[in-house]
Amino acid sequence: MTNVAVVGTQWGDEGKGKVVDLYAEDADVIVRFQGGNNAGHTLVVKGVQTILHLIPSGILHDHKTCIIGNGVVVDPAVMKQEIENLEKRALFPEHTRLFVSEKAHLIMPYHRRLDVAREARKSDRKIGTTGRGIGLAYEDKVARVGIRFCDLLDETTFMEKLRDNIEEKNFYLTRRFEEAPLDAQQIFDEYRGYAEYLKPFVADTSLIIAQEMRRGKKILFEGAQGCHLDIDHGTYPYVTSSNTVAGNASCGSGVGPRAIDRVVGICKAYTTRVGEGPFVTELTDAVGEHMQTVGQEFGATTGRKRRCGWLDMVLVRQAVRVCGISGIAVTKLDVLTGLEKLKICVGYRTAAGEEYTESVPANLKALAGCQPVYQELDGWTEDIRHANQIDDLPKNTRKYIERLEILSDAPLMLVSVGAGRESTIVLKNPFGD
Ligand code: IMP
User: Is the bond preceding 372 in cis, omega lying within 30 degrees of 0?
Assistant: First the structure.
């Protein structure tokens, strides 16, 4: 049986939610393996919009197993709220099961407080985080002081770990950031409530996935954020705190690397970025504004306006290489409708005259000084939102995606021309032969 990982090739917000939701129909198990509620996957099913931050997008389908893997950092309040919201709107199907790894680390109130305080203190050097405590939770995980779900379920261990943490975190909060301290007992009481509510969902998810694989079930690994927000391979330090590349589908869910047969890279037809950091193809003119308004480029988590720019194939080519992408899904192609000329960035030129065509300079100063090298194409004006096959697309639209396919060096699997499931051209099913 084929198992598939879906990852973003840019800086997140590529429209992964819609593609994962579509592929989830063919999968039996859907696994999130990194990030936390910094992600926001917007799904439109039968005209109804649902935004999920933590729970895998596959949850809207019946008879699925949805897993929040060990590599995810979980804010239990958000998890509880998402489950309650889905139940309230009758969107949690009867035969769908949800599990969270007993090894997943918890986001604690001090993570959120310190995330926000630190960013405020940095002012002009801030990362522009989502303020959800993601980075702080991963810091504690690596520092071996994090609290996991298995600890939450054991009252004594939870209190011990909480006390140790509170002692240190309150020192930072009060002395470094001049903020009010947190109260361990209050957090303990609040988190006991989450423990009670979430206990039935906590499991050894690595084992569940292995058992499902043995039964011949198909697994879909759902990435969050994008390749260039990866802690190792992204535009450091303007990145998130987890590995967003496909390789982490293995570590973050507890399966061997050979379990991942195919990797689909999601590539928006233009580029966006939320938060700070260099952005070579950024547009601050009317074209950028067109992308922002037509594409409704607001962060699904923070509501911030996304910065917009031309399609950057240097980013995409690096993502294809680093993630081992076997096929590309192009999204939001309809947003480009009406633009007279379109540009695709095929290289960067540094101030020193060096050219980069398939890798992003690691040195941030060099990257910030890069100029884009563009290829120009003619745009189209026809409404493409009802296209069901490539031949339905205008000639210039076809030329644009053909260029994208050639430059990415990976075959096109899917083209999305609108928000709904029906506005999709499927060229190849990743679960097929
Ligand atoms: P953090 O993940 O909240 O620590 O934020 C670090 C950086 O990653 C910031 O620039 C965020 O805007 C960005 N980021 C985090 N999650 C997402 C996402 O889901 N989409 C786009 N950008 C994100």
Answer: no
